[in-house]
Design brief:
The protein is of the alpha/beta class. Helix 14 packs across helix 16. The longest helix is centred in the middle third of the chain and has 25 residues.
Length: 650
């Protein structure tokens, strides 16, 4: 809303409907709406579809995406009906989007409820730019392939031009499923699809964020401050551990947290009167439609377990004057919730599987002006990769979580201050607005239609050898050096010619009718030093930096062939000043990557980086460079191949 981009929200109203005329509703209000104001367009879902649709989303998709496979496929013979309801609801959304779409619009589809929608929209609006974002984890291919309709769901998502995830791990597992189930291999550009013009689905990583300014305003308001004062009086003399989850989220890890806290109290009996765990576990919201029995069973079992654990801890470690666990199941007002976060000393997020969890973000903002309390964060939470200063734990390891509580309590003020500064800087820069704007900007940059270049045919080696041997005139042998005569090396220091190469070059030069030219991407100074050290001197012709500099055999003079991009010109300085900071940034944040700076080229090598992460970073770097270089500067951005892994600007 604050981005300034006109929005049309297409969604279900939250109420089941027996029938409805969407088109009439839209046309009746279209002429009355200000294009600069957000618009809301309802999609009607008949009650007979709604129940089965919600069951499929909750019981099948949501469970499986969180690695719970107990109820995948529905209960008994209900699965076909559940799937049909899911298809029909997605189709209703497709009809609604098609009716309100105007040329130039961007379409952004959200979450697992509408996995089929991108492809449905693509069939109707083949020229539109379509984005899809998944708010949950994406499981490994071994889990996802259990779904009976796995292929249809993947094909549905791949109808998008851009598919976004919270973390790199989720995107990697999505790509693995596409490879294993569809035979589609990802590339630095995304996933290239065969039908109708080479459509490409790009993949992007977009960490979550919150509205920091709004939260800061609430935290500094008088109602929250009054609640903070009340809570501090109530918990005076005690350290406060805060946990915030929903009781109907069986992946929140509430029981894991309680077991770890119980062990902590057993190991530290002196803390029983000096610490309290305030566990907020809000009951489920009123459902809009019926749920199948399995969901109710999960919720009832979890609630019973949590109540038993709370009762056991309070009875064994509590006293008539105090209880170690304060258990809250009521739906807290956000002012009360943020006041609790301001008062707390430690926050524990013990999710066993989670996509979007904003509690770490809210905790960081609330604590910045308070005690700067540590965050104990499950390594399985989607936000774990974003909070590097948190104490990361495996919630299944009770001893580790218990030790993490001890570590957090013993943390010095200086450590808390340093960790808080890093976390607060991340949260205040990676906001919800930035998350949304980044996705929309990337979606705008996608190309709806792409063509696949034809492969270069292999030469006839036998014919080449025969022609060479039969020639009675002067012969020129032109050899690619990097990756051909010598093994590809990202570091030029390791790419000097070995003795075997020097020997073969000498054999060629022993024939006076033969001239040898070597083509190398390295700079001319490095290449010259190589062959001077071998004793060949200037007998070998060199074409350096992809032909930008040429030296003929027997000559010492270099010919500069790079035109306006030659060294020392204003154009060279202009593109280098724009390009090099970006490439250095990617080299620093990609372990194993190195940046090689030539006179008229710059090469980012990722040969020694992690295979998957290096490919991902290469794609991201390529996109960053193309976004401004190709449009404004007289240079090009080129990529290497599977063997020569680099991104080059020349």
């Amino acid at each position: 809303r604050s981005s300034g981009i006109p929005m049309v929200y297409v969604g279900w109203t939250g109420n089941p409907s027996e029938n409805g005329n969407f088109g009439t509703t839209w046309r009746r209000h279209a002429n009355q709406l200000d294009p600069d104001v957000e618009r809301h367009v309802p999609v009607t879902i008949p009650s007979e579809l709604l129940a089965d649709y919600q069951v499929f989303c909750q019981e099948t998709l949501w469970s499986l995406l969180h690695y719970d496979i107990d109820y995948v496929g529905g209960v008994g013979d209900t699965q076909p009906a559940l799937w049909e309801a899911y298809v029909q609801v997605n189709m209703r959304f497709a009809e609604a989007v098609t009716e309100v779409f105007e040329d130039g619009d961007l379409i952004w589809i959200h979450d697992y409820h509408l996995m089929l929608l991108p492809q449905m929209v693509r069939k109707r609006l083949w020229y539109a730019r379509v984005g899809f974002f998944l708010y949950t984890p994406f499981p490994s291919s071994e889990i996802f392939r259990i779904l009976p309709h796995r292929v249809e769901l993947l094909q549905g998502i791949l109808g998008a031009d851009l598919c976004g995830f919270y973390t790199y791990d989720y995107s990697k597992q999505f790509l693995a499923s596409c490879l294993r189930l569809l035979g589609l291999e990802g590339s630095p550009k995304g996933i290239e699809l065969e039908p109708r013009g080479g459509h490409v689905c790009e993949i992007g990583i977009y960490p979550a964020g919150i509205d920091v300014q709004e939260l800061k305003h609430l935290v500094s308001s008088a109602p929250v401050k009054n609640r903070v004062n009340d809570l501090r009086k109530r918990y005076a003399g005690r350290r406060v551990i805060v946990g915030v989850e929903r009781m109907d989220d069986c992946f929140a890890g509430i029981t894991h947290k309680l077991l770890a806290f119980e062990e902590f109290l057993a190991r530290n009996p002196r803390m029983r009167e000096r610490i309290v765990l305030v566990q907020v576990a809000m009951d489920p919201r009123t459902p809009g439609a019926k749920k199948v029995s399995s969901n109710n069973i999960n919720y009832n079992v979890l609630k019973k377990q949590v109540n038993e654990f709370v009762g056991r801890i309070n009875s064994t470690a509590g006293s008539p004057a105090s209880s170690p666990v304060h258990f809250v199941t009521a739906e807290l007002d956000k002012l009360d919730l943020y006041a609790l976060m301001c008062v707390g000393d430690i926050c524990i997020v013990s999710s066993v599987r989670a996509g979007m969890n904003l509690v770490p973000y809210e905790w960081t903002v609330c604590q910045h002006g308070s005690s700067k309390g540590p965050l104990i964060l499950s390594e399985f939470a989607g936000s774990a990769q974003s909070f590097s200063t948190a104490i990361h734990v495996n919630p299944w390891d009770t001893d580790q979580v218990s030790s993490a509580i001890e570590q957090a309590l013993e943390m010095t003020a200086e450590e808390r201050q340093a960790n808080d500064e890093i976390a607060h800087r991340f949260v205040t820069t990676h906001t919800a607005k930035l998350w949304g704007c980044n996705f929309i900007e990337d979606l705008e940059m996608t190309e709806p239609v792409r063509t696949r270049p034809a492969p270069t045919p292999l030469p006839d080696v036998g014919a080449i050898v025969e022609a060479f041997q039969g020639a009675d005139k002067k012969k020129i042998v032109v050899c690619a050096y990097d990756g051909t005569m010598v093994a590809y090396q990202p570091l030029s220091e390791l790419a000097a010619p070995p003795e075997s190469v020097v020997m073969n070059v000498r054999r060629l030069l022993s024939d006076e009718s033969v001239m040898v030219f070597l083509l190398t991407a390295r700079d001319r100074h490095t290449a010259s030093q190589w062959f001077e050290a071998t004793g060949l001197g200037n007998r070998v012709g060199l074409a350096c930096e992809h032909g930008s500099f040429l030296r003929f055999p027997g000559e010492d003079e270099w010919h500069v062939l790079c035109g306006d991009s030659m060294a020392g010109t204003p154009n060279l300085e202009a593109w280098k000043s724009a390009v090099l900071p970006v490439m250095r940034h990617f080299a620093k944040r990609t372990p194993g990557a190195v940046l090689e700076e030539g006179e008229v080229t710059a090469t980012w090598h990722y040969h020694d980086a992690d295979r998957d992460f290096g490919e991902w970073q290469a794609r991201d770097l390529h996109k960053h460079l193309e976004s401004f270089i190709v449009q404004h500067l007289q240079v090009e951005v080129v990529s290497g191949d599977e063997r020569r892994k680099w991104i080059k600007v020349r």
